[in-house]
Please model this.
Amino acid sequence: MVRSSLRWMPAVLVPLVIGTGVVVAGASPVVTLEEKTPEQVLALVAASDVRSFSGTIQQTSRLGLPEFPSTDSGSDSTTDSVASALELITGAHEARVFVDGPQRARVQITENLAERDVIRSGSEVWTYDSEAKEATHLTLPDKTAAHDSPAWTPGEIAARALAAVTPSTEVSLDPASRVAGRSTYELVLTPRTEDTLVGSVTIAVDSESGMPLAASVHARGESAPAFRVAFTAIDLAAPAARLFAFTPPAEATVKEESVPDAALPGTLDARDLRSAVPPFGVSGSDWSTVVELPSGSAPPELLASPLFASLATPVDGGKLLGSALLNVLVTDDGRVFAGAVPLNVLQDAAANR
Amino acid sequence: MSSAEPGPARAIGERAPLGSPSGEGESRHPSLGISLLVSELSVIYRRPRTWALLAALAAVPILIAVAVRLTDDGPQPGRGPPFLDSITNNGLFVGFTALVVCIPLFLPLTVGVVAGDTIAGEAGHGTLRYLLIVPAGRVRLLLVKYVGAAIFCLSATLTIVLAGTVIGFALFPLGDVTLLSGDTIGPGESTLRLLLVAGYVTVSLLGLSAVGLFISTLTDVPVGAMAATIVIAVASQVVGALPQLAWLHPWLLSNHWLGFGDLLRQPISWDSFGANALLQLGYIALFGALAYGRFTTKDVLS
Model:
């Protein structure tokens, strides 16, 4: 009897070993780094001169929006484009990023048995969609050629957050951690105001290169981040040059598109925005900024679409598109108020105008 | 282990005093294990059933290729199984498409039949106890049965790839292969990638083979073990399709089954290959241990 129970031992031990392995791998690692003040970490970021890398970026969002199946329902194109935009900001996405200096970059959004690519080499930009077998070719105007192209890497997001470091924000450091196998300083930005949905922004800074490796935004009162962009793997060596030389495959449909000098995604800053969209008003400041668009600026067909009706909740004075980090209020007279602020701040802004 | 030992070590083992179980075991293991495996493989591949399964698998790429060839305007991008629209440009894609079509049901079905039959089949035929007359033979028999099932997994995948490539060459032009990233690679590298995908799919089926082996030790009715194995493969995919059970997905047998797309990117990504291999290894360890516990304590009467 003893022998026969011994023979079941492996069947007991294997789950134990697997379970222990999972717990050990999932436990937050103990990382000891040289003590630094938040200012020193900010300086480390500013001094970072990483120009070439390849890595895998994972983006997860828990914005409290419903998840949409990304199937084409055959409805009108406005709803489709809104649904595909929503699909991008809900759920999880993975991308492989290759950057070699400011001029050459390649982003691959990877899905199961499909991929979307954006390849930039100097002023030449290609996009490729493996499912539709469509390639698009753009030539950037010279004056924009100097811009850095990856606009959504953790570095870019961190730079934006760091630019917002003003007296409105408390900057502190969490215990050191580990991102993509590298030890990181965890910079925490906490808004001092109560009038915002943002609880804190955490930026993981590589302790060696000073490159931000992860950025996450926590909604007020939530422990899991509402939005997180992080490297899951990174290599600071220059990627192979042939990755940036793209020739569209023979069977793909190739579209040529020209870029108007003024409006180029990725190079828009606040001034360009003002000239590109109807005049808008801003109230509040820093974390509790509210943007107001005048009546009629929201497309009427969008407001009438069933998708909008299913997402919006009626509130005092209009309809609310709510999420964990952003609230949008469409008032009954058609004005639009948006901001990372609670509903009552939007309603106050609407009432004061 | 001992088969890799150099000559002198084996000579010492052979000179060990008679009656020493360890010395005797070491000198007898390699020859017996290999001859047992050879006889197991000849049993598997002499069965008409095995050849019928492989023929059914080979029919899938042939059916796909002929259907695409006979339609006039060809498939549209984005409709039907992945890679279907690439077939008209390149015969090599027939194999890829057939693998995508086969992996949810056909491959688990054939693997379930072979793995479910391993022990239960012998028990059902009353031949199991003759296989076990060698002392301490149960572990070795279990290993040989599992290796036999694993070799069948490889032959099943290669059958699809081979049939797809042959029919693809016969009906369609051969040219550069377009990867998911939009880059093109020549026929040499694309053959390599196709073989890598075949390897990935084979690895994907190893966990299911271990599950089948364990279920097969539970019963003397081979059909029951086969059906249960196939049900587990299907149930795993049903659970994988439910977003409400997302927390369970990383643990599912079928979680990475369609992940071989990572081998078709530029540069090649090994992430899902590694994750899949680790997951399947976990299943092999767990169900191998369960099968060991069950089979070594089982009363073999038939």
Q: What stands out?
A: Chain B has a mean pLDDT of 85. Residues 30-297 of chain B form one domain. The beta strands of chain B are 177-178, 184-185. Chain B is about 70% helix and 0% strand.
